[in-house]
């Protein structure tokens, strides 16, 4: 569940970011800047991350604050799901990453699968959209929507990438230790459920 202090820090950050973007009065701008500094201080106090790093990662954006988008490719072979082992934490995840400007969600799924697993895939259809706050992820400074896109292998072979150390296929009852920052067991099991019927409705939190 979302930690209250983290929820408040995100809300303060979003309000201050919007205020800095749209306010014209110099005194309002000063107050919104103070709010942004307060959100950074909350994150710093509860995470022990240096203020400069928090400012860069958490409070450095401009414009209206919106959720980030994380794209995950869902690839099956013989009823087993494709996963890659992340070098960062040594745990397993569906291929994927942040959405890139200029690329569609399907294009991101195809690109990330190739880079992280070596497989060439064709994006088929959207399986679901998850709000990261509704699942058992570690605390994060961002509000994130996760897109799960079914893909079909059309070529290539299992090959590790710059960010991955192993590639494998796993059944629903033999999942490896998961990189819960990227995907939870509940989400992965939803993928098995989503392909159990070609007419199953796309899920959306």
TrEMBL record:
It comes from the Bacteria. The keyword Acetylation does not apply. GO terms for molecular function: hydrolase activity. Pfam families: NUDIX, Nudix_N. Its EC number is 3.6.-.-. Residues 66-192 form the Nudix hydrolase domain. SUPFAM superfamilies: Nudix (SSF55811). The keyword Acyltransferase does not apply. Belongs to the Nudix hydrolase family. PANTHER family: ADP-RIBOSE PYROPHOSPHATASE, DIHYDRONEOPTERIN TRIPHOSPHATE DIPHOSPHATASE. This is NUDIX hydrolase. It comes from Paenibacillus nicotianae.
């Amino acid at each position: 569940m979302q930690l209250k202090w983290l929820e408040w820090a995100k809300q303060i950050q979003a309000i201050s970011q919007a205020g800095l973007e749209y306010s014209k009065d110099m005194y309002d701008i000063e107050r919104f800047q103070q709010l942004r500094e307060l959100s950074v201080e909350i994150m710093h106090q509860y995470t022990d991350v240096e203020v400069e790093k928090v400012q860069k990662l958490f409070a450095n954006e401009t414009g209206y604050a919106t959720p980030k988008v994380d794209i995950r490719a869902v690839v099956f072979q013989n009823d087993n799901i494709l996963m890659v082992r992340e070098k960062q934490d040594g745990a397993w995840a569906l291929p994927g990453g942040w959405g890139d400007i200029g690329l569609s969600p399907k294009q991101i799924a195809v690109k990330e699968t190739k880079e992280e697993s070596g497989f060439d895939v064709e994006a088929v259809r959207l399986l679901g959209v998850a709000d990261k706050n509704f699942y058992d992820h570690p605390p994060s400074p961002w509000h994130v929507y996760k897109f799960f896109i079914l893909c079909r292998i059309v070529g290539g072979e299992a090959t590790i990438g710059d960010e991955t150390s192993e590639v494998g296929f796993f059944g629903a009852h033999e999942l490896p230790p998961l990189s819960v920052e990227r995907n939870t067991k509940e989400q992965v099991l939803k993928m098995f459920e989503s392909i159990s019927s070609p007419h199953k409705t796309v899920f959306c939190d």
